[in-house]
Structure formats: C-alpha cells, structure tokens
Amino acid sequence: MFHIGEKPYQCSHCDKSFTKLSTLENHNMIHTGEKPYQCSYCNNSFRKKAHLESHTRIHTGEKPYQCSHCDKSFTDNNSRKKHTRIHTGERPYQCNQCDKCFTQNSNLKSHYRIHTGEKTYQCSHCDKSYTKNSNLKIHTRIHTGEKPYQCSHCDKSFTHNSSLKIHTRIHTREKPYHCVQCDKSFTSNYSLKEHNKIHTGEKPYQCSQCYISFTSRRYFNNHIMIHTGEKPYRCSKCDKSFTLKGYLKTHIMIHTGEKPYQCNQCHKTFSRKSNRTCHIKKLHTQRSYTTTEKQMHSKISNTYSLNESKVEVKVEQIDSETNETDSLSGLKIEVKEEPIDMYD
User: Fold this and answer.
1) Tens digit of pLDDT for each residue in 247-276?
2) How many domains does the chain divide into?
3) Which stretches make up the C2H2-type domain (predicted)?
4) Does residue 246 form part of some domain?
5) 149 and 163 in contact (C-beta within 8 Å)?
6) Is 45 inside any structural domain?
7) Terminal Cα distance for the chain, rounded
C-alpha cells in the first residue's frame, strides 16, 4: 500500500518515477522504441492503444469532439482543448526569456530555439536547417516539387496550406488585412507589412551598385537583375526573356491575344492593367491635362519604364493663395514607389 504522492516505480533509463507499474511499462517504450499498436490503414504504429484509435480517425474521417465556440471538430479531445484556447485567449505556456506566451507546450519549446539559435532539423538536400520539423517538411517540398494543396477554383497548387488560403482570396476577393493609414486592403498580413513601409518610409534593402533602396528583399532581388542582366523567365513562343514571371505572363498575352482588363465605361480591353488605368485617366476623367503636365507625365513614365519599375505619377494643382508655386507653373509632381503583384 502506497501513500498519496508516492511514486515507487522508478525508470531505469531516466529519473522519472510513476505511481503505477502499467504506466512505467508504457513509459519504457519511449526508451526501447517499442510501438505495439499498428495502424491497419498505413504503416504508422503507436505506444498506446488510445493513440492508435485517435490516429485511425484521420483515415475514417470521424471527428467526434466538437468545439462549443465554432463549427470545428476534432479526432481527439486533447486537440479540441488546444483549439478552444483560440477562443478563450488562454496562453498558459510562457517564455522565461521574453514576454511571449503560447497555447501549446510544443510551440513554446520551438520558440526557445529562437533564443538558443538551435536548428536541429537539417535539410538533406541543401545546407538549410530549421527550429521545427514541420518547417523542414514544408521546405523539403521545394526540392521534391510536391504541392499537395490544390486550389478548387483554378489549377494552381501549393506546398503549404496557408499559401493556398492566401491564394484563394484572389478568387473570393477577400482582403481581411486593412491599412490603418489609408484605404488599401490586402490578402495577407505579409503584404500589409510590406505596404506599411510606404507610410513609414522604411527601405532596409539598399543596392550596393546604384544605392537605390527598397521596401522588401523581393523588390531588391528583382532590381539586382537589372545590373546582372539576368532574365530567367523565357518566352516559349519567341526569343524574349524577362526578369519577372509577371512580365512574362503579360508578354504571352501578345501571342494569345488575351486582353483580360476591360474598361467599364467604353468596354475597350487591354492586356495590361496599367494600360487600362492610363486609358481611363486619359479619356474618362473629368479633368483635362495641360501640355506641361502631359510632357512631364510622359517623361517620368518613360524613364521608369526602362528600369522595369512601377511608379505612380501624381500631378496636383497647387493653390497659389496658400502654397508657393515651383518652376512648373504651379504643378506638384510626386513620384511614389508602389508594390505590385507580379510574382504569382
């Protein structure tokens, strides 16, 4: 007979002890690697029968544990408990090196590796390593070409489910991430963060050859190709090649005759969205441009088109009573860098 709290069954492999012999025997399987419960659907095996039963539901599709806050259901009760913390806001696992908290202990353990610099999961194809095994699995698909997440609206597929979710918003036109400084919205939080740099003026990526700075590494890498002359995207119909995949897709429309961008006022169609925008401003806007404005707009547009950069040229009339006029007869010219979605 044992007292409450007493753990007489000591593991011979580590310093853990248990109140029951059956619990010790089950624990010993961690050290021996024994997994007696085999799945009849796949080659996975488990130490506990309960774990096998929970796993089998993945194959059968059974999800008996329903969330009381939303319509999600789960194969096991433990997964439901973890999910419920999303609704309750409970984050019981706190990092002792910073103020971050987590809903799961496994997430906390992975987070600790940020502080220690430990990256235990090494890619067998290249020299990259990761703090999480799940991140390594996603990365490995770059080498294997595996894209298991298929879009139900088009023929595109993705290496990660989160990438599919972001892509699907192109079809649903959902843009849940809103800029608090202007009226723009985005399909992903990453795109919003990149956009915010326009307002903050932050451009951390500087070219060492011409000293132009960029808001994101992606734009910086594309700019470098101007100096190197690299054009990796080649047209299969002719001998032209391009620095960006988006430019190639637009170019191919010359061969296919596709013009997906239609003016909603005169129904004229265009192969490029920017051409439609220029068309609307030129023919369907109320304000007519002066000769000086037209010349300036043309000069700036031509200059930047040579560098394969998208710029917005904004022409404003300055109020002569409240603002000083410049040498362009009271015109204010603003050239603004703007992110473009050319990387599908």
Assistant:
1) 898 899 999 999 989 999 999 999 888 899
2) 1
3) 9-36, 37-64, 65-92, 93-120, 121-148, 149-176, 177-204, 205-232, 233-260, 261-289
4) yes
5) yes
6) no
7) 68
CA angle 48, 51, 52 (to 5 degrees): 90
> Coil, helix or strand for 158?
strand
Domain that holds residue 276: 205-291
How far apart are alpha carbons 62 and 54 in whole angstroms? 9
In whole angstroms, give the CA distance from residue 59 to residue 39. 10
The runs of H, that is alpha helices, within the chain are 21-32, 49-60, 77-88, 105-116, 133-144, 161-172, 189-200, 217-228, 245-256, 273-283, 291-305
Contact 161, 183 (CB under 8 A): no
What is the tens place of the pLDDT at every residue in 77-135? 989 999 999 899 899 999 999 989 998 898 898 888 889 888 889 999 998 999 888 88
d(CA 98, CA 114): 11
The pTM of this model reads: 0.46
pLDDT in tens, 138-174: 999 989 989 999 999 999 999 888 899 999 999 999 9
Identify whether 211 is part of a domain.
yes
Rounded to 5 degrees, what angle do the CA atoms 243, 177, 110 make? 85
Q: What CATH number does the domain containing 284 carry?
A: 3.30.160.60
Cβ–Cβ < 8 Å for 333, 300 = yes
- Which structure tokens are listed for 75? 């194969």
Rounded to the nearest integer, the mean pLDDT of the chain is 82
Residue 251 lies in a domain: yes
pLDDT of res. 132: 85
Residue 75 CB partners (closer than 8 Å, separation 6+): 54, 55, 57, 58, 62, 63, 64, 65
Q: Which residues pair with 37 in a beta bridge?
A: 46
SS3 of 235, please? coil
Bridge partners (DSSP) listed for residue 312? 336
141 contact partners, CB below 8 Å, separation of at least 6: 147, 148, 159, 160
